[in-house]
Amino acid sequence: MDPAADPWPSAGARAAAARDVPPPPRPLLELELELPNGETLHLFAAHWKSKRGGERATAGYRRAGAEILRRRIAELLRDDATVDVVIAGDLNETGEVGQGVAAHIGAIPRAAPAVPGSYHYHGSWKAIDHVLLSAGLAHPHGVFYAGGLQVATDGLLTAAGAPRAMRAGGASNHLPVVVELRLGDAAAAAAPAR
C-alpha cells in the first residue's frame, strides 16, 4: 500500500487463540498500526462468550478469553514496558474479568458514560462493551487518549430509551462505545491532515 495514501499503515494483523486454555474461547483479533512518529499502536478486538446458557456455565469461556489477552499483553510488555494498547469489544462482563484485564495493562481511568450502559436487556442496562487503554496512552506523545468514554446514542434509541433493535431498523442490540485518541505534538506535525 502507498504510505502517502494511508497515513497509518498496518504493521500486521493476527488472530490469537489458545488450545491450552479450557474451554476454548473465541479468537482475539490484533491489529498493529504504525504511527507517523514510528511508534506502534496495538489494537485488540474481543468478543467474549455471552452469558446465554447461564452466567456460571459460561464464565470459563470469558476467563479463557481474558487469559489469551493477558498472555499477549504480557508478551508486548516484556518487549516494551510503555507499549500503547487499546482493547475494545463486547466482553460480556461488567465485573472482575474485565477489571482484571484493565489492571493487567494498567488501564487509565475514564469518566463514566452519559447513559448507564451499552446493552439493554430485559429492561436493564449493562456496561458489557468496553474500551480499555494502556497507561501509556495517558501521556501526549505519539498517540494519546484525548478524553471521553461515550456511548453513542444519536438515532439509535427508541422513544422508550432502549437501543433500536435490528428488526426495527437498528444496527445492533449494543450501542457503540467511543473514545477519542489524538496524535501528540511531535507526531501531529509529521502526520498528514485528515
Description of the structure:
Helix 1 packs parallel to helix 2. It is globular and about 45 Å long. The strands form 3 sheets. The chain has a 5-stranded mixed beta sheet with strand order 1-2-3-4-7, with helices on one face. The protein is 21% helix and 29% strand. Strand 3, helix 1 and strand 4 form a beta-alpha-beta unit. The chain has one domain: Endonuclease/exonuclease/phosphatase (Deoxyribonuclease I, Chain A, 4-Layer Sandwich). The longest helix is centred in the middle third of the chain and has 25 residues. The two termini are 18 Å apart. It has 194 residues and is of the alpha+beta class.
Give me some keywords for this one.
194 residues; Deoxyribonuclease I, Chain A; 9 strands; 21% helix; globular; disordered C terminus
